[in-house]
TrEMBL record:
<dbReference type="GO" id="GO:0030643">
    <property type="term" value="P:intracellular phosphate ion homeostasis"/>
</dbReference>
<dbReference type="Pfam" id="PF01895">
    <property type="entry name" value="PhoU"/>
</dbReference>
<keyword id="KW-0238">DNA-binding</keyword>
<dbReference type="InterPro" id="IPR026022">
    <property type="entry name" value="PhoU_dom"/>
</dbReference>
<dbReference type="GO" id="GO:0003677">
    <property type="term" value="F:DNA binding"/>
</dbReference>
<dbReference type="GO" id="GO:0045936">
    <property type="term" value="P:negative regulation of phosphate metabolic process"/>
</dbReference>
<feature type="domain" description="SpoVT-AbrB">
    <location>
        <begin position="22"/>
        <end position="68"/>
    </location>
</feature>
<dbReference type="InterPro" id="IPR038078">
    <property type="entry name" value="PhoU-like_sf"/>
</dbReference>
<dbReference type="InterPro" id="IPR037914">
    <property type="entry name" value="SpoVT-AbrB_sf"/>
</dbReference>
<dbReference type="InterPro" id="IPR007159">
    <property type="entry name" value="SpoVT-AbrB_dom"/>
</dbReference>
<dbReference type="InterPro" id="IPR028366">
    <property type="entry name" value="PhoU"/>
</dbReference>
<dbReference type="Pfam" id="PF04014">
    <property type="entry name" value="MazE_antitoxin"/>
</dbReference>
<protein>
    <submittedName>
        <fullName>AbrB/MazE/SpoVT family DNA-binding domain-containing protein</fullName>
    </submittedName>
</protein>
Length: 343
């Protein structure tokens, strides 16, 4: 990655082939790769936990949690600093040091502080003329991904409701609330992604979080859908702030009708995601179909008006929210088939 210099030694463990040996006439043994043993801090006499995987393989974990040394990454001060700083956070680094060949200006410092405020557990611990050090104090083991995802979903649905009411009630204050809450949604999203990435590269952490790689993947995708729904709600609110012209009564009624469909999904998408209930999935996807049909009348009414472009944008963002919510529900597929009788 351009602009990053890591001081952490990375040990890559390639796939190895081992022969199964018979020991003592009754036990089968397989040797462990030396690099993995050293990386996990194991030695002679250490114990490991072996558990079967769904694909027929085996998972091997250290018996005691392995604490890795804090990792440090240095980022050069460039125009891409904001993205690089967030990227280093998501990658899982514990210390992020921003360095510059020239004194860092107040403008750059304010931008760094703004980005850091949006990252949970991140604090600026040291500043000098040519460097800023950011420490990440976030214990991934104490963060429940499922709770973070539900919290993110709750905030986003609140944003959607604020944005819709801002449009229907011509209330700019509600629109500003929706825009402001997008920052909190992003903060939760970044936290969740950091935890999920850490668990994916550290099987022991995934075990302590009582989750599997497949669940981590589904959580990551669901979080992105929900985060996008929040972005669309914020864009809807921003469009209302840009165009303060009230809707005509007939258009407002049609917008109310399609917005009501989206809001009626409630918590069904996130409940379907966690419960894998086919009835909830069908209910959400059915509402998506209803939204698409009802949208035809809204688009017909707004066609050819002076503010058609703004109304089209409102519909586009609301439609994206509807699609994102349906996608969250559909992540629970394939659903375990119902077994009427086992033999």
């Amino acid at each position: 990655m351009i602009g990053l210099t890591t001081t952490t030694k990375v040990i890559l463990i390639v796939e190895v082939r081992r022969a199964v040996q018979l020991t003592g006439g009754s036990s089968f043994t397989v040797t462990l790769p030396k690099e993995w043993v050293e990386r996990m801090g194991l030695s002679k006499g250490s114990q490991v936990i072996i558990s079967p995987a769904e694909d027929g393989g085996l998972h091997i974990y250290p018996d005691k949690p392995f604490s890795r040394r804090p990792s440090l990454v240095e980022i050069m001060l460039t125009e891409d600093l904001s993205q690089l700083l967030v990227g280093a956070y998501l990658y899982g680094y514990d210390t992020i040091k921003i360095v510059s060949k020239t004194p860092i200006t107040d403008t750059w410092l304010e931008m760094i502080r703004r980005v850091v405020r949006g990252l949970a557990g991140a604090e600026i611990v040291d500043e000098s003329d040519e460097s800023v050090e950011v420490q990440i104090v976030l214990n991934e083991e104490t963060v429940a991904p499922e709770k973070l995802l539900r919290r993110q979903y709750n905030l986003v649905m609140g944003m959607v409701e604020y944005a819709v009411n801002a449009v229907l009630m011509d209330d700019s204050s509600l629109a500003r609330v929706a825009v402001t809450r997008d920052e909190e949604v992003d903060r939760l999203y970044f936290t969740l992604v950091r935890v999920l990435r850490s668990a994916l590269v550290d099987p022991a952490l995934a075990k302590r979080l009582n989750t599997s790689p497949l669940n981590l993947l589904d959580l990551r995708v669901a979080a992105k859908f929900i985060e996008d729904a929040g972005d669309q709600a914020a864009e809807m609110a921003k469009e209302k702030l840009r165009n303060k012209k009230p809707m005509s009564d007939d258009v407002k009624q049609e917008f109310r009708n399609i917005a009501k469909i989206v809001l009626s999904t409630g918590f069904d998408p996130i409940d379907a995601f966690f419960s894998h209930e086919i009835t909830l999935v069908n209910k959400v996807t059915g509402l998506r179909s209803e939204f698409m049909k009802r949208s035809e009348e809204f688009l017909r009414r707004v066609s050819g008006r002076g503010d058609t472009a703004s109304l089209y944008k409102l519909h586009f963002h609301l439609a994206r929210v509807c699609e994102d919510l349906a996608d969250v529900a559909e992540l629970s597929l394939p659903i375990k088939p119902y077994v009427a009788r086992q033999t």
